[in-house]
Amino acid sequence: MVKKAITHLKLNQANPGKLRKLDQLALEHQRVVQAYVDWLIERQIDQPNKYADIPEQHVPTPLSDRWQRCAWQQACGIVQSWYANGRETPPVLRNVCLQANANVVVIEPSHTPQFDFWLRISTLEAGNPVRVPIPLYNRAKETIAEFTKLCTGVTLNKRDGQWYATFVVERRGAKAQSSQVIGVDIGMVSIVSTSGGQRYGQISPELRKRLERAVEKHRRKQKLNACLKRKDMPTVDPGDNRAEAFSRNEIGRPLNQMLDELLKGSAVALERLSVKDMRFKSRQMNRVLRASQLGYVRDKLKFKLDERGIRYRSVQPAYSSQQCSHCGFTFSLNRRSQAEFRCLWCGYEANADENAAANLAERFGDEELNLLPFREVETVLAMRFMRRLPDARSASAGLDTRVNEVAYLHLGQSARLKHPWHSCL
Fold it and tell me: Deepest in the core among 85, 274, 357, 374, taking most CB within 10 A?
């Protein structure tokens, strides 16, 4: 199943009276969502159950029970994301957003040529919904023709005084069987590198500069908001939509190019990234890490692969940048720099990201490695290297090579460098 969002559907064809009712609903809905978010965070509920009983006694509201359920589910999603990203400042809702289901907003087909759909929206007045017309732009019509099922969930947003709706469509169908696997490494220099030797996109100096300015501007606005709160004055939006849009365009183009050039019938092996825990000692490298937006690249690539019906799998990435894709020797000093890889055993040289992508491709069907925790991967890789090493078999003179494997694993990295390799066996 592949899903896709149709965004920026304007609600500007509705009369002012209907939009006023929608404004009143949105104001109350946002207040209730914020109250639920605060309630969950105060009780440190990091995994709230969106189907649990709603704490109605803490949030009196004229919203209907169905709208309260939507507000509760939206609050649960916000809190889960807040905890998952390791945030410390409690979230404050500034943008108007209503995540609605079919119990409160119904998509009705239009029988007139002027509009394509009508939205029947429940309001604060029980039994008096409003119907808002929705005209589709050409690209939206093409998407609905391609994705035949229109989902019932609707998101309503208000930006710069204008109301917008977002529809979700889906297409069912099994993904094509693959004849080969292409490994894809997400990097901090090249946005993506493949096991076929291609690199797509660069984290340009302009992108880094814009994101650094956005981070500094966000910091200043946070200080300003702290002062405004103390004076009981309205706060400002700390976000920078222009910088975010620029970075997403810079990332989207190379991803589209990679997928356009991907050989038909290929499956993709992606690294199982955990961006939240990634930190460097150098402040400059941390700025590069923020500019690379690894988490966004990962999620966007998965979305595009689903959209195109391409089979993919997230594999264990541990030590993929230190393992030689030719002989399997794994050692931290194999990777000389961010871009250079040279195996200290067999002398194989390659771009470091392309070498890592080749290792990811090999792990596509490696069930043993993909089930291991990060810290146990190095041991398994070393034992595999020893088993297929001809010198290990000849040096053992027919003895059990497991003794040599244990000795190899217990040697420190400095000892492995100082001593001749074959004498260690």
Answer: 357
Report the half-sphere exposure of 14 (CA within 13 A, side-chain side).
25
Are residue 196 and residue 327 in the same domain, yes or no?
A: no
> 351: number of CA atoms within 13 Å, CB side?
16
Parallel, antiparallel or unpaired: strands 266-271 and 349-351: unpaired
Considering only CA atoms, which of 129, 61, 170, 248 is closest in space to residue 75? 61
228 and 275 fall within a common domain: yes
Instruction: Kindly report, residue by residue over 388-422, the tens digit of the pLDDT.
Output: 876 544 444 444 444 444 444 444 444 344 333 43
* DSSP result, 293-356: THHHHHHHHHHHHHHTT--EEEE--TTTTTB-TTT--B-GGGB-SSSEEE-TTT--EEEHHHHH
Q: Which position has the token pair 């759909």?
A: 117
252 in a structural domain: yes
Q: Following DSSP, what letter does each residue of 143-212 receive, concatenated?
A: HHHHS-EEPS-EEEEEETTEEEEEEEEEE--PPPP-SEEEEEEE-SSEEEEETTS-EEEE--HHHHHHHH
CB 46 within 8 A of CB 80: yes
Unique residue bearing structure tokens 């559907």: 9
* Domain-located, residue 357: no
Model pLDDT for residues 115-169, shown as the tens digit of each residue = 999 999 999 998 899 999 999 999 999 999 888 889 999 999 998 899 999 999 9
Residue 153: other Cβ atoms inside 10 A: 15
Nearest to 116 by CA among 130, 137, 96: 137
Structure tokens at 27: 């104001």
pTM, two decimal places? 0.63
Instruction: Say yes or no: 108 and 187 in one domain.
Output: no
The whole domain housing 403 covers 316-347+370-425
